[in-house]
Design a protein that fits this description.
By secondary structure, this protein is α/β, with parallel strands linked by helices. The chain has 19 helices and 9 strands. The chain is globular.
Length: 471
């Protein structure tokens, strides 16, 4: 019987162990998509407790707690103490067996705090006190200290076009040797969210203010966004990211889009057809900006968000009430990329699907738009959100292997708000090495080509991303 989370966790063969320990484990982390707070990084934030760093904002854990019958006040309430919240999470942990949270949580305790004790109600106080003491008093357990501990080389945060990037600028001035680089990533979702005219009008007003451009027509909107795009580029940005339900590639004319924009700004609700046309125009504008600036564009699609409207009104977005959606988006995805490719305006692109039913479709879509200018120009992103667990990662890598080139994959990211999420990179690397080790053990790959597999592991873990994003 194997011990739980020992040094060979998830590594079933001697080849897998060799690949991980000698070629993956020590490589730096490039976390090219996350939701960390730039202010926390710039301030080198010190956490008041294990609850703040571990449960604050973690909708994965909140969903599990609610499912376990834990009252909302222990998830997001203001009338419960940090320890009471942690105790409720510890009581939930034994029921998380076979959920990825069980692996992630124990990996984080072990790699960050040196704790091998299994988390449960009986061990909650001991673990909480030990970790909270380190977070409060040890100089290495700050936001930056934890990033250094995990050998993080670079992070890309997620930032709105109206953000002033003041924390990025301050951090760039004050960053010390050994601290990771932090650069912004452009997330312009609100600039195309016309379905709520009142909210959208307020956003456009803010965009007008920060850009210095009076926005009265759609062309003005694009000019203002271009100005902010240039500002982001001047502050080191190399990537955009788009959170969309599905791809949009409806036919439209400039006059139609200008009319839709004018009507929305006057408070008129767009029809579903008008909304799709407007989003189609916006996605094209964003893609053309990214191509001109030689950025990488990322598309996270397929989430049904804020399903529980009562809890959305109470808690707001990103609080654990989202799910996998079913969208027939293949035709629109193809049309969108085809328009860019035929106009020679398609930049490096990463597609993340949330529904595993889309795996083969996305993996084959990539090949339609590779143009031979650089390896893996059009990428299929690693298992995202509900899919960034062992089975999801294995399915993504196995499908990419048979329908594309796994060797050119740019690897893992955290997509997290937590400074303790970096073991997800370790988890990914172990799974990758285990897949390849099993292939050799089964005679499906030649043992004589082990040096090539060693390079492959190093590339997917680190070097492919380093080259691809042109940081």
């Amino acid at each position: 019987m194997k011990p739980f989370i020992d040094k060979n966790f998830l590594l079933q063969t001697s080849t897998a162990q060799h690949l991980y320990h000698n070629h993956a484990a020590s490589l730096p982390i490039i976390d090219y998509h996350c939701h960390l707070s730039p202010q926390m990084v710039a301030d080198d934030h010190r956490f008041r407790s294990l609850t703040e760093i571990w449960l604050g904002g973690d909708h994965y854990k909140w969903r599990a707690m609610r499912t376990n019958g834990i009252a909302e006040r222990y998830c997001t309430g203001s009338d419960t103490s940090d320890f009471e919240k942690f105790e409720a999470w510890a009581a939930t942990m034994p029921y998380c067996m076979r959920n990825p949270l069980y692996h992630w949580s124990h990996l984080e305790l072990k790699t960050a705090f040196g704790i091998d004790t299994i988390l449960k109600l009986e061990t909650a106080r001991e673990i909480y006190d030990h970790c909270t003491d380190l977070l409060q008093n040890n100089p290495n357990y700050t936001a930056r200290g934890l990033m250094r501990h995990y050998n993080v080389e670079l992070v890309c945060t997620t930032d709105d076009p109206v953000d002033d990037l003041c924390h990025h600028q301050r951090y760039a001035r004050e960053r010390k040797d050994g601290d990771p680089r932090m650069i912004p990533a452009w997330r312009p979702d609100k600039a195309m969210a016309v379905d709520n005219p009142q909210t959208y009008k307020a956003y456009v007003a803010r965009l007008s203010e920060v850009s210095g451009i009076d926005i009265s027509r759609f062309a003005d909107l694009v000019d203002a966004l271009q100005k902010r795009h240039d500002f982001f580029a001047a502050n080191g940005c190399r990537l955009s990211d788009h959170g969309i339900e599905e791809f949009y590639a409806d036919d439209y004319t400039d006059a139609e889009i200008d009319n839709i924009f004018t009507r929305v700004m006057s408070g008129i609700q767009p029809t579903p057809a008008e909304s799709r046309k407007f989003k189609s125009a916006m996605l094209m504008a964003f893609a053309e900006m990214d191509h001109t600036s030689d950025w990488t564009q990322q598309f996270h699609y397929g989430a049904m968000r804020d399903n529980n409207t009562g809890m959305f009104r109470t808690l707001g977005p990103d609080t654990g009430f989202d799910s996998i959606g079913q969208f027939n988006t293949a035709r629109a995805m193809s049309s969108f990329f085809n328009r860019l490719a035929t106009a020679h305006r398609l930049t490096r692109t990463i597609i993340y699907n949330l529904n595993p039913a889309d795996n083969a479709m996305v993996a084959t879509m990539l090949g339609n738009f590779q143009d031979g200018t650089e390896p893996g120009k059009i990428q299929w992103g690693s298992g995202w959100w509900f899919m960034d667990q062992k089975r999801g990662m294995e399915e993504q890598m196995n499908t990419l292997s048979v329908l594309g080139l796994l060797s050119r994959f740019v690897g893992m990211l955290t997509d997290s708000r937590s400074f303790l999420s970096y073991p997800r990179h370790e988890y990914f690397r172990r799974i990758l090495c285990n897949i390849l080790g099993n292939d050799i053990a089964n005679g499906e790959l030649p043992e004589s080509e082990l040096p090539q597999l060693e390079r492959m592991v190093e590339d997917i873990s680190y070097y492919n991303a380093q080259r691809y994003f042109k940081f």
